[in-house]
Amino acid sequence: MTDSFVFPVMIAARYISFADFLQHIEALIVAIWIAGIFVKVSVFLYVQAISLAQWLNLNDFRPLVFPLAFLDLVYSFWVISNQSEIATLLGSSGNLYTLFVLIVLPGLLLAVARIRNGRVHRTVGNGQS
């Protein structure tokens, strides 16, 4: 039955009631959902701006926020334009994409950070001797 619904959580929220006076909590669930999306997008945009500012050797990241937000918006429509494309992506290569984004990419970043920190500590140690 849940396969025919786009958002099964919203269907389940219709039937939730607390002590027969708090019913129809769909609005609360949507508010929590939107707040979570806002926090996630804000953190990702902040990390993008800080990273690009460090990469370009800029002192302030704030001039980069609006151009990066615009590029993120354009990219979000370019990658997937409707729900059928999302279903196709998740059905075919979504697991590989998720594996790469959630495991491989952070692992590579961690490895590069450890290698760079190892070189910095060795250089400081050799310079003091």
From TrEMBL:
Keyword terms, alphabetized: Germination, Membrane, Transmembrane, Transmembrane helix, Transport
A single GO BP: spore germination
GO CC field: membrane
InterPro entries, alphabetized: Spore_GerAB
Pfam families: Spore_permease (PF03845)
Predominant location: membrane
Transmembrane segments: 27-49, 61-80, 86-112
Keyword Ion transport in record: no
Localization (cell): Membrane
Membrane topology: Multi-pass membrane protein
Family: Belongs to the amino acid-polyamine-organocation (APC) superfamily. Spore germination protein (SGP) (TC 2.A.3.9) family.
Family matches, as PANTHER family: SPORE GERMINATION PROTEIN A2
Protein name: Uncharacterized protein
Organism, scientific name: Cohnella faecalis
